[in-house]
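Re: the pair you flagged

First of the two:
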Amino acid sequence: QVQLVESGGGLVQAGGSLRLSCAASGRTFSRHAMGWFRQAPGKERECVAAISRRSGRTYYADSVKGRFTISRDNANNTVYLQMNSLKPEDTAVYYCAAFFQPFGSSPNWWGVEQYDYWGQGTQVTVSS
């Protein structure tokens, strides 16, 4: 069982930066792949970034590539999302999510159904 708690959201002007953090409980964090999703009003939840269990692989949605960076600290059970050059269209509730990643598996990094554990979400609002 993994419990996730996000922090770091807030209101920022366009062009600004925010760093989201997701603290995970439990002793199996390093066995879980992590993802950051977002959901804007009236839209489906979408994956913006994902990272493998040992940070060997990272994945980004085209809409955030070059602006967002996902990273993790397995020693401290934390995953981060550094968001730079923020745009009004980045406004959404951001969720941290996790799934157990066996070695050699080929997960669907972008699929909501792939992830077993979710945080409560943190609001990010970008003003123009």
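Second of the two:
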Amino acid sequence: VQLQASGGGLVQAGDYLRLSCAASVPSGRTFRAYCMGWFRQAPGKEREFVANIRGSGDTTYSPDSVKGHFTISRDNTKNTVYLQMSSLKSEDTAVYYCAAVLNVGRQYVSEGAYPYWGRGTLVTVSS
């Protein structure tokens, strides 16, 4: 599985941004077979979980720290997962990574559960 995240950039506090992650999956598999997750790593900090979404797209999960602030979604016809971020704050500055794990019926919050990772896209929020 190859993942390519995009959409990062420099924004002002209070702005919104939508990240995309395009997936290329092996022949014989479908994108909807994968649980997708977003993680982020701020400067000098460990990588942290941001959101995940089941393969069908009907169930999502995000920690309270970003709930209502970030929204994950996916378009299985485009093999793409999105992270809509609103009311951005300086503390949202980080490299954002998308990740995938083959499991259509479950969701995972641990980064160790995800074997496939994109390279990340940098989001910088200036105050």
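The longest strand covers residues 94-102.

-B.
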